[in-house]
Amino acid sequence: MKTLAAFAVLAALACVPARAQKLNINFDAISKKATDKTEMSLEGPMLDMLKQTVLKNVGKDNQAIFAGVDQISLHTYEFAKAGDYSDQDLDALRKQVTGSTGWSRMLNVQEKDEATEIYTFMQGKNPAGFLLIAAEAKELTVIHVSGTFQLAQLQELIKSTVQFKELAQQ
């Protein structure tokens, strides 16, 4: 999506440590409607094991990005036709972040058949995590990452989350 490039620019401007709160992400209703899906939630020993595998492939310069990540949640759904899921299916997640102290929307891009939202979680004056919702007519992706990392490194972190997805599917 074009808006991910815009997010990368915004993320590059922020270089502060982050630690996010855990969200309750439940997409059971959406999942039932999807033709293809990937649902991954990693933390603790499972995340540590996968990080070791990915860290071998990312090079020493990028290893610091993953060292402090303590939870990754990735949900990707593809649908047979537009309208198989609706924007209202995301309302429960949006209410969690907009109704909780510390969360705010950093980016909201609405295009013809796609939308991208980025929320950040603040602890005091420090950014403390992110939630990405990328919605297209026939595809939906939601990424939530918590842990200690630099917001300027989010573009690489998002790319590597996709690598986590690919490894998890093997």
Question: Can you offer a commentary on this structure?
Answer:
The chain contains six helices and eight strands. It has helices spanning 2-13, 28-33, 44-58, 60-67, 91-98, 154-169; strands at 17-18, 36-43, 69-78, 103-110, 114-123, 126-136, 139-147, 149-150. The two termini are 25 Å apart.
Name some characteristics of this structure.
six-stranded antiparallel sheet; two-stranded antiparallel ribbon; 35% strand; 170 residues
Give the number of helices.
6
Which band does the percent of strand residues land in?
Answer: 35-45%
DSSP helix fraction: 25-40%
Provide the gyration radius in Å: 15 Å
For the termini, the CA-CA separation is: 25 Å
Care to count the β-strands? 8
Reading the helices and strands in chain order gives HEHEHHEHEEEEEH
Lateral strand order in the biggest sheet: 2-3-7-6-5-4
* Main sheet characteristics: 6 strands, antiparallel
Q: What coarse outline follows from CA principal-axis ratios?
A: globular
Q: What is the average of the pLDDT values?
A: 76
Q: Which class best fits the helix and strand makeup? A: alpha+beta
Low-pLDDT stretches: 1-20
